[in-house]
Amino acid sequence: MLWDDAKVHVTGIGWPALTAVFEGVRAYKARDGRATYLFRYDAHLARLWRSMRFMHLFSRWSVEELTEATRGLIEANGVIDDLYVMPLAYGMSGNRGVTAMDAQPADIYITTRVVPSKFPDPKPEAVAVSSWTRINDNIMPPRIKAVANYLNSRFAQSEARRGGYDSGVFLNTQGKVTEGGGECFFMVRDGVVVTPPTTAGILESITRASVIELLQAEVGVKVVEREIDRTETYFAEEMFFAGTMHEIGPIRSIDGFEVPGGAPGPITRKLMQVFERVVRGEEAKYASWLTKITLD
Ligand code: PMP
Q: What are the start and end residues of each CATH 3.30.470.10 domain in the chain?
């Protein structure tokens, strides 16, 4: 369906959005421009299924059908490029979405647009610890990719930008570092990469899992998942964000404390190079992470 032809009832705005869960997925263009590769679409759809399950929604389409629909969408657009793909599921029936009884069938739409990658030279960011606390598992679980969770992100991101920073980093109710509004947090201390565990109040991020694997297997550094104190970050040798939209985003300072050697540091730089090769289909070892789409 063409963008301008889409129709949805006006009452679909507002309350039904309470149930909306989604995925943000990137596709990366091969350097020769002949194909674009959806990155870990299976993992994204598996997470969408978990998010739907939590919302008492179910899909009327299989993973294979949604994957083929996405392929068809990209082919119909005829654009082989760096893309951002967003499948979004929501339930329109029920009591304004407030009460979930029996599981209901979700409506699902998928959109795509060109979003150029920031590789190979993303701009290092100045970040600040947010005065807003991260939502937690017993309030609104950050593990679920629910649209409503992004209200919390919006508060932190707006505060950071209005305060002259590029991004905010949330602490959880225990005062430990969690993540950014839309990306995971990593730091390097004593040559070891450290990132908060998925029980800290973060999304079960697909980039995070991929980065942990690549850091260990390809960059050759140790990765530890553990709680992180705010002030530890002030002494980090390197810091970076990781997420679909953000990709690998070097951090140059936090709360005004500059990373000593400048950003990106050597580990972040190496990771970015490996990651870009993987996502652009240049590492056969990781071919199973990619869904190839061509117009031939
Ligand atoms: N944390 C949050 C809050 C996010 O919105 C995202 C983006 N989906 C991430 C982390 C990164 O997750 P992923 O790597 O799966 O995109």
A: 3-114
